[in-house]
Amino acid sequence: MTVNPILAFSARRRMRSARTALLLTAYSLAVLIFGLVAAFGGFLKSRITIYTMADGMTGYAAMLAFQFFLLLLVTPAMTAGTISGERERQTMDLLLVTNTGSLRIVLGKLLESLGLMLLLVFATLPAMCLVLITGSLTLAQVLEGLLFLGVVAYAMLSVGMLCSALLRRTVAATVVAYLAVFAIGLVTLLPLIGDLRAAGRLYDDAIYSSYYPGPIAAIGEADASGGIQMTSFILNPALGLISLIASQTGLMRGALGNYSYTMYEMYDYMDFAGMARWSMGFMAAAGTALNLLAACFVRPRKARARKGKRA
Amino acid sequence: MLEIRELTRVYGHFTALDHLSMSIGDGELHGFVGPNGAGKTTTMRILATLLAPTSGTAVIDGVDVTENPRRVRELVGYMPDFFGVYDHLKSWEYLDFYARCYGFGQSERARMTSQLLDLVNLSDKKDAYVDSLSRGMKQRLCLAHALIHDPKLLILDEPASGMDPRARAEMKGILKSLKDMGKTVLISSHILPELSEMCDSLTIIDHGKLVFSGAVDALARHMQGQAAIHLRLLPGEDGDPTPAAAALLKQYPGVTAIERGDDSCTLLVGYEGDEDGMADLLQALLRAGVRVSGFHRPPMNLEKVFMEVTRSDS
Fold it and tell me: What's the mean pLDDT in B43-59?
């Protein structure tokens, strides 16, 4: 199997740049410092001399969430300039006449950016593994956390890739990519908000109802009859992250309880591990769809439309 | 090798190419001439499958560019008029990258990269970063890129634009080598005298329409017939010799126009006849007592031809 030429070529150029080494160092250090502050901040305040399992999990969750935030900041811009940049540099024509397929171009550009993002994410593995000292999580769970971040990066890179293929200017593609990520984040929250309202109403009704033995059973009934659906959680990457942290550490009950008492009560009944995995699957599928769509816009559209027709 | 029939490309309300037809034979070096905005780049981009025609056909070595663009790309090497280069990349890596895109294996790539750098006289710049090369060197490197897959037809859009005279001479040498290698070359340029020396045939277009297409010699002969005869006269006994000569010439068959030249003793005579006719015309003048000290039709070079054929519309 031959390596995608665009991937090999772009990776070589990327790794030659001093910026890449600086980015790698800065990213790893930022994650480590953030995680240590989150883990030891509580320890210093409480004056307890034992580094607890909860501190380890807090540090781990903080690093995971911080990386998620950094990825949202960095990734759309990484691919937003790939196709549009080729057009701006006037190198696109030279590439297109080589018979390189549109999908191959998109894949090459995407995998190169994804490779760097995975390098950044997995470079934080030693820092993330600090949680192993307290024994609260396994290495497999830490790797699952990093895999989740990798999938988030893939999805965000795909949004940037589509914008880059659609728009001629890199600046415009970058702005639209960030707006799209923001819009996706907002829109995919709506089903959960709707579900919580509905479930909350059912929960209130259940308290005063003699039908149900207690409110928890009412919520179980509500979930089965149109309460909080799993799909509401898996569509939004941030909710996917919350699901992952909840399933691995159990730390999210308080945070979710602050937002919604319904969620607090339902915490034990929700399959967070399953939702995290479904969230990853959804992001991977959506990212792939966006990349396939991007490939349709790499070649001049009019030329494609005429293909097969004779004037 | 190339057959274009009624090729048209319309951008909104603007017709960039208007039913252009032309053909190029195997192994020809064909000049493609026209003022800015004439439609040269549009034609070349259609041939390189980067743009679809609105109507008409272009067939390269028997393959229609709109029907089978993938096959056409294997037949064509394209060098655009404007192109960029990548930073953080050496010259040999630049060619190696495009060779990879064409699917060549490692050993083949190493061999052809070395050969192509030799061909375009850039062997000594093999390890130089592409973005550090001069404009002329970048253009030669881009030409090497167009040759990677050993195409039958080379489409070169203004390959010598912006080059200094030395770089232009080098480019000219490379093009001659390509012609010797049997490549068919379609080259557009504004450096017309150079084209006239190099090309076997040429096409002139203006405002998207064909003005002339054929052999360089045929164009020169065609245009030569339309060039004015420069007639220099000596003053006679009556002083100014031109009125008498002009009166005689007005009656002479084939004379289309008579204008005064730069001085009072020179006439520019439009004459449709061939060289035999010119000899008869001269004899008639001498028999009438006109004292002729100069009688010639100046040769047309491509620059003049170009100015002449595009003059009416500009």
Answer: 90
Q: Which of B88, B101, B104, B131 to mutate to test the interface with A (most CBs of A within 10 A)?
A: B101
Q: Do B56 and A311 touch (CB under 8 A)?
A: yes
Number of domains in chain B: 2
Asked if the Cβ–Cβ distance from B101 to A302 is below 8 Å, we say no
Whether the Cβ atoms of residue A150 and residue A117 lie closer than 8 Å to each other: yes
pLDDT in tens, B157-183: 888 777 777 777 888 888 888 888 888
Whether residue A156 lies inside any domain: the answer is yes
What is the nearest CA distance from B50 to chain A, expressed in angstroms? Answer: 7
Strand ranges for A84-191 from DSSP E: none
- Whole-Å CA distances, A281 to A166, A183, A275, B54: 25, 20, 10, 44
Residue B57, chain A, CB below 8 Å: the answer is yes
Please state whether B162 falls in left (phi above 0), alpha (psi between -120 and 50) or beta.
Answer: left
Q: Do residue A311 and residue B64 have CB atoms under 8 angstroms apart? A: no
In a domain, A193, yes or no: no
Nearest CA in chain B to A91: B84
A88, A91, A306: residue with CB nearest B86: A91
Q: Does A264 reside within a domain?
A: yes
Query: Is the Cβ pair A303, B69 closer than 8 Å?
Result: yes
Highest mean pLDDT range out of A79-93, A277-291, B88-102, B176-190? A277-291
Query: A95 CB near a chain B CB, below 8 Å?
Result: yes
Note whether B78 contacts A98, CB cutoff 8 Å.
Answer: no
A49 is a domain residue: yes
Question: Which residue range forms the structural domain that includes residue B276?
Answer: 228-297
Residues of B in contact with A308 (CB under 8 A): 66-67
Strands (E), chain B: 2-11, 14-24, 29-33, 55-60, 63-64, 76-79, 153-157, 184-188, 201-206, 209-215, 229-233, 255-260, 266-271, 292-296
The CA distance from B299 to A283, in Å, is 73
Confidence of residue B120 (pLDDT cuts 50, 70, 90): confident
Q: What is the CATH number of the domain that holds B272?
A: 3.30.70.100
Distance from CA of A102 to the nearest CA of B (A): 12
B87 in contact with A, Cβ within 8 Å? yes
Q: Which domain holds residue A286?
A: 5-128+137-188+235-298
8 Å CB contact of B102 and A98: yes
- Report how far Cα B3 is from the mean position of its chain's Cα atoms: 17
For the stretch B281-304, pLDDT in tens is 888 888 888 888 888 887 766 666
Domain count, chain A: 1
Among candidates B64, B67, B83 on the partner chain, residue whose Cβ is nearest the Cβ of A91: B83
Q: Classify residue B309: in a domain, yes or no.
A: no
Looking at the fold, whether B64 and B195 belong to one and the same domain comes out as yes
What number is the ipTM of this complex? 0.73
Reference B141, options B151, B155, B129; nearest CA is: B129
Chosen from B42, B55, B97 to mutate, greatest number of chain A CBs within 10 A: B97
Interchain CB contact of B1 with A (< 8 Å): no
Global confidence as pTM? 0.75
Asked whether residue B133 falls in the same domain as residue B272, the answer is no
| B212-268 confidence digits (pLDDT tens) | 888 877 776 666 666 788 888 887 666 777 787 888 888 888 888 888 877 778 888
Q: Which residues pair with B187 in a beta bridge?
A: B31, B156
Q: Which residues contact B173 (CB under 8 A, 6 or more apart)?
A: none
Is B233 part of any domain?
yes
